[in-house]
Amino acid sequence: MVKHSLLKIVTAAAIAVGTSLSAFAADPIKIGSILSVTGPAAFLGDPELKTLQLYIEKINKEGGVLGRQLQLVHYDDGTDASKANGFAKRLIDDDKVDIIVGGTVTGSTMSMIPLVEKAEIPFISLAGAVVIIEPVKKWVFKTPHTDRMAAEKVFEDMKRRNLTKIALFSETSGFGASGKKETEAMAGKMGITLVANETYGPKDTDMTPQLTKIKNTEGVQAVFVFGLGQGPAVVNKNYKQLGLTLPLYHAHGVASEEFIKLSGTAAEGVRLPAAALLVADKLAANDPQKPVATGYRKAYGDRYKEDVSTFGGHAYDGLMIAVDAFKRAGSTDKAKVRDAIEATKGYIGTGGKVNMSATDHMGLDLSAFRMLEIKNGDWSLLY
After folding, report:
1. Of 255, 259, 278, 338, which is most buried, counting CB atoms within 10 Å of its CB?
2. Which residues contact 290 (CB under 8 A, 6 or more apart)?
């Protein structure tokens, strides 16, 4: 009788432990995200959120990661850096997320960095400025190409066309301000002279005063616009209205179909550096990015009936790098995951081939950028 009672107690205890372990194993891996789904950068943040939702759902249907489901904990900062800071505190202190993927824009990202560094939580930003990863910050990584790379790629193309005297027209946002600084520095290195240097606000709706100054500046051979969101499309329209015919370049902050739609015919002839994703169907059959880019394009298009953007691609790469790091770390231990992200090598994503290191928390080189031109309302691959 005693043995029988003891057996029942041991069995009950075993069941309780088993149930507890099962519950523990079933705890989701929390992916925190703060994106600019509304506000001036909405056409960046919207496809980023949709991409995370699409692929987290897909990964969960396929069994999850480490035998656990992924859970997206998302907040919309409205393209407001102060809101991003508040939401980052919530993700860290209240939601207890395992990793953060996004900010959308540089301002939001920079407002979050001190918090993630203090909390020691891996953070993969989807924003463009080089200041995010230089100097290297232990817990901070990013997927998009940098503003410095954009300036270098644009200047390379200009020099091919013997264009060495240019006007820079940059946005006063975090991305634009960093882009201005990097473009000015790169110009000196590459023998480019900035004969005009104007700025505009991210919410401005008329840029004709600044463009008129540029038009009246002697010696300008081309114009380089550094901004994101809707502002650059306004620049295109004002440019055409003023009858400007100089070669017009933009940075990678406008690399989406929405930019062409907002600009209309004023986008014709514009050149910019961008990820291969926008020209996935035009890539060579043996290009290692082709299956990744076309696969993402199909999955996103089938789900949302929308064209892809490089911004959604940045979110795809951020999530896949995070998932791969969880798998290689074999756990959600934040330090191990951080180390695994930093050790990412040979990842082929929508943005290019990623090889990170202790001194490079982005892992892309200039070859990851393709030079595109808008022709007949579509992207044309130059090289």
Report:
1. 255
2. 276, 280, 283, 284
Q: How far apart are CA 137 and CA 134, in angstroms?
A: 7
Q: At a CB cut-off of 8 Å and minimum separation 6, what does 218 contact?
A: 195
Domain locations in the chain as residue ranges: 25-145+289-352, 148-274
Place of tokens 């996004």: 102
Predicted confidence band of residue 105 (pLDDT cuts 50, 70, 90): very high
Q: Residue written as tokens 């080089």?
A: 130
DSSP element (H, E) containing 5: helix 2-26
From CA 185, how far away is CA 137, in angstroms rounded?
22
What are the tens digits of pLDDT across the range 276-300?
Answer: 999 999 999 999 999 999 999 999 9
Indicate the DSSP class of residue 136: -
Q: Do the first three CATH levels of 25-145+289-352 and 148-274 match, i.e. the same topology? A: yes
- Report the C-alpha gap between 53 and 76 in whole angstroms: 14
Partners of 271 in the β-ladder? 249, 373
How far is the C-alpha of 31 from the C-alpha of 150, rounded, in Å?
29
Q: pLDDT band at 7, cuts 50/70/90?
A: very low
Q: What is the CATH superfamily name and number for domain 148-274?
A: Response regulator (3.40.50.2300)
Give the distance, in angstroms, between the CA of residue 217 and the centroid of all CA atoms in the same chain: 35
Q: How confident is the model at residue 40 (pLDDT cuts 50, 70, 90)?
A: confident
Residues 6+ apart with CB under 8 A from 201: 171, 172, 231
Q: Which has the closest alpha carbon to 95: 31, 45, 21, 23?
A: 31
The structure tokens listed for 133 are 């990863």
Fold of the CATH domain 25-145+289-352: Rossmann fold (3.40.50)
Token pair of 57 as six digits = 């759902």
Enter the pTM of the model.
0.87
CA 309, CA 315: separation in Å to the nearest integer?
Answer: 10
Strands (E), 36-190: 70-76, 99-101, 123-125, 140-142, 165-171
DSSP 238: H
Question: Do residues 61 and 83 make contact, with C-beta atoms less than 8 angstroms apart?
Answer: no
Instruction: Find where tokens 């009672």 sit.
Output: 5
Separation of alpha carbons 165 and 154, rounded Å: 13
